[in-house]
Amino acid sequence: MSTEPGAYIHPTEVNKRSRAALMDQKPATLWFTGLSGARKSTTANHLEQLLHHDCHHTVLLDGDNIRHGLNSDLGFTEEDRIENIRRIAEVAKLMTEVGLIVLVASISPFRSARQFARNLMEPGEFIEIFVDAPLEECVKRDPKGLYKQVLSGEIAHFTGFGSDYEPPERPELHLRTTEAGRAELAEEIVAFLKGRIYGDKTPEEL
Questions:
Q1: Helix, strand, coil percentages in the chain from 3-state DSSP, rounded to 5
Q2: How far apart are CA 120 and CA 129, in angstroms?
Q3: How far is Cα 187 from Cα 51, in angstroms, rounded to an integer?
Q4: Would you say residue 206 lies in a domain?
Q5: How many domains does the chain have?
Q6: How far apart, in whole angstroms, are the C-alpha atoms of residue 122 and residue 192?
């Protein structure tokens, strides 16, 4: 065992499984990845409402929101984007240890960074959800005005423009947001989750 300061992991008596048992669910991280404007946050937010209504314990980690706090010191270089995902992944892991269903909505453009997040979790605990929309559709939507700034030269190396997006090769779920709305997509995720990380109980049965 290492004697380096900070290297020792202190054991705890109350573990992830005992915490999750109180919530009647299996902890998991649902990782929404896709281009800006693909509707990751919109879909994740609607899904969380459904899960909350069904008495499931959740937390939503939105990439934009986290950049106002934990990751406010990071920019948009490739190194900073990798560090951004590393920190979000570590937080998600801590949240699963509490027993929560964690929803992460972040562009997370690099496969290696998403694989790092997956490797932190137990088998079956990481669910990659590819929120797919063509770049031209995302540019047309432009809900935050970011593509307008990119096209005017105000922002450089934005994902899809000078910085690559590496789509998932084998995501657990592949959602096409040009073919369905947020409610339909959220219901598709709920159907996928039932029997995997929680049962079919309604609020009245809990």
A1: 40, 15, 40
A2: 17
A3: 10
A4: no
A5: 1
A6: 18
**Residue 108 designated active-site:** yes
Query: How would you label 164-179 residue by residue, b for 16+ Cβ within 10 Å and e otherwise?
Result: ebeebeebbbebebee
Domain, as residue range, for 166: 25-195
Which candidate in 106, 108, 112, 163 is catalytic?
Answer: 108
Specify if 171 maps to a domain.
yes
Radius of gyration of the chain (CA): 18
Contact present, 62 and 41 (Cβ < 8 Å) = yes
4 located within any domain? no
Instruction: Compute the distance between CA of residue 45 and CA of residue 103 in angstroms, rounded to an integer.
Output: 9
In the chain, what percentage of residues exceed pLDDT 70? 92
Per-residue pLDDT of 84-96, as tens digits, reads 999 999 999 999 9
Helix (H, G, I), strand (E, B) or coil at 174: strand
Query: How does pLDDT run across 10-22, given as a tens digit for each residue?
Result: 778 888 888 888 8
Both tokens of 18, joined, read 């005992």
Number of Cβ atoms within 10 Å of the Cβ of 97: 14
Distance CA 169, CA 192 (A): 19
